[in-house]
Amino acid sequence: MTGAPLSVLVVDDEPPIRKLLRLGLSAHGYQVLEAPNGKTALELLGKAPDLIILDLGLPDTQGHDLLRTIRARNERVPIVVLSSRGDEAGKVQALDLGADDYVTKPFGMDELLARMRAALRHQLQVLQRSGRGGGSSRSRTVGSGSCSRVC
Q: CA-CA distance, 100 to 23, in Å (whole number)?
């Protein structure tokens, strides 16, 4: 079963990080939307991304505030924080505000991809238990070759 690629909103103010993520995620079959700041990220939520990768150090807003805003809109989209902030209190705050996972920079692409797949699987399980998942049009194939995953 092959469907449209999953879309990932990458929210990071550093162009080299966005480029790395765009190239890495695209090579694994994801469609990438990019936001250099919180304002653009909120605008791109209208495109209904399947997952968000969120840096906490943004130029126009605190990442924790953006996370709180996204969740206050009742957005169920999985959010993986990708940040250079490695302090335990910051990680706990992000997870308590609704992040599904937290990856510290520098990071490995394989680990990030695995955490993304886990967050997407978890979301699918929650939707299926609530009666909103299953055969929905949001089910799509992720990955390439013999390592494809259905999310």
A: 23
How many whole angstroms separate alpha carbon 7 and alpha carbon 25? 10
Q: pLDDT tens digits, residue range 135-147?
A: 433 444 444 332 3
Model pTM score: 0.84
Which conformational region is residue 100 in: left (phi greater than 0), alpha (psi within -120 to 50 degrees), or beta? alpha
Strands 31-35 and 7-11: parallel
The mean pLDDT value for 67-90 works out to: 93
The domain limits of the chain are 7-150
- β strands within 17-112, DSSP E: 31-35, 51-54, 79-83, 101-104
How far apart CA 11 and CA 56 sit, in angstroms, is 9
Query: Fold for domain 7-150?
Result: Rossmann fold (3.40.50)
